[in-house]
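Weekly puzzle thread! Below is a chain. First person to post its structure in token form gets bragging rights.
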Amino acid sequence: MALELDTRQRAMLQEMGVRVWLPDALVPVEDTPSVAESALAAPAARPVVAAPPSPLPSPVAVRPVSVVRTALPPAEGVTSAGQNLQSLDGPALAAAAAACQACGLCAGRRQSTAQTVTVQADWMVVGDPPDEDEDRLGQPFAEQAGVLLDAMLKAVGAGRSGAARQGAYVSNVVKCRPPNARLPQPDELRQCEHYLRREVELVQPKVILALGRWAAQVLLQEHPEQASLPLGKQRGVVYRYQGIPVVVSYHPKVLLRASADKAKAWADLCLALDVLDAAD
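Winning reply:
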């Protein structure tokens, strides 16, 4: 049975660098490589249209969608300077995160990756702790991982500089790179989550993408039976964090190493888009 893809779905796959077989009658006369494919392509040229080893799954057939509903209390806690987080607006919250010394993570950072919330955005993307590139540039999802994420967001009509339906606010589950690239400790995750909760309150997203196992661990903490599962088994379920729908998927850095997972990430993106469409 042939896989039926509409124009939007084919565009999403192309932006993510997933190659799709199309019947000869549907092959476009001229294809322009996507941002992600241009940035990540191997030196040797490869065709845009090719037959994959096996058909890609329909996004609605990945897994039956179940919804886990929960609502967490508003952001609490204070900064290391004694400021109440709930009283901080976007610029003040970013400044407080940049100066925060409330846990041991501050010893490993060059720059905080906390961004200034200036507008409401329907999409919020939360990733794992900052890596070296993110720490150096002071922003989440930097370099090639950022290029791929931006292409994924573009495929659903959103971007970091947009607002409302066209807006996507990006963040890390903690704002500082752990010293010597070690793993974050549970108390450090809990401490920095106060900032994350306040970001959610300010951004007011309609859907959250949790990209990576650390992001999923924090955003699914009210459901330890799901939070302890491998990320691959957390997919396909709509959770809730502070009442906001959450969809779990792979971090772009993983997709750069394992391109076969791009089709799964595409399905997760379609699920998030369906959640967003249903909220309108």
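Puzzle host: Confirmed. Bonus trivia for everyone else. Residues 7-61 form one domain.
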